[in-house]
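Box 3.1. Reading complex inputs
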Amino acid sequence: GESVGLHLPTLSVQEGDNSIINCAYSNSASDYFIWYKQESGKGPQFIIDIRSNMDKRQGQRVTVLLNKTVKHLSLQIAATQPGDSAVYFCAERRGSYDKVIFGPGTSLSVIP
Amino acid sequence: EAGVAQSPRYKIIEKRQSVAFWCNPISGHATLYWYQQILGQGPKLLIQFQNNGVVDDSQLPKDRFSAERLKGVDSTLKIQPAKLEDSAVYLCASSFSRIEAFFGQGTRLTVV
């Protein structure tokens, strides 16, 4: 079946510290993995994606790591800022029509 | 560039009533998605259009939900009759080719 979260884990970090958000995925057929950020009252916003044949990709203040052996994905945010407070979702993109399936989210709270 | 527009932003209806949501995707985006997001969960894909054709509606409750995409541009999602468990945020997203999906702000539906 599709990945649907029933609980929302929470991560609290001090401003300026690094954050690590983890995600487990189930489908080995996915060709891209994506991280989205969702602020209260808004739709999800694309952060970064990684192709399934890569194990690391860096963006501005963010790094995504992919471990296909254990089907694990992580998002690292450097020097976390109050504006990073949001719910973060991992998602998988698969199929010829780029179906995007969301996983369970993690709520990140940044303490000033 | 204008984003994905959705209306209304909020809707409250009684169970067994009908409701319709409207989405105007980003100009030129061939792919349009409708997602249902229940509080505390990740978005669940309901239906995906490529131009004006449906490419995935495997999780759309077809006995009560319907969607169409007019001339490959705007789209409407309808629920008839609504149930209490349909209370959720309905998100529309669009994408061009394999570039990331852009989401609208969503319509928050409350069924009482």
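In summary: Residues 11 and 108 of chain A are 5 Å apart (CA to CA).
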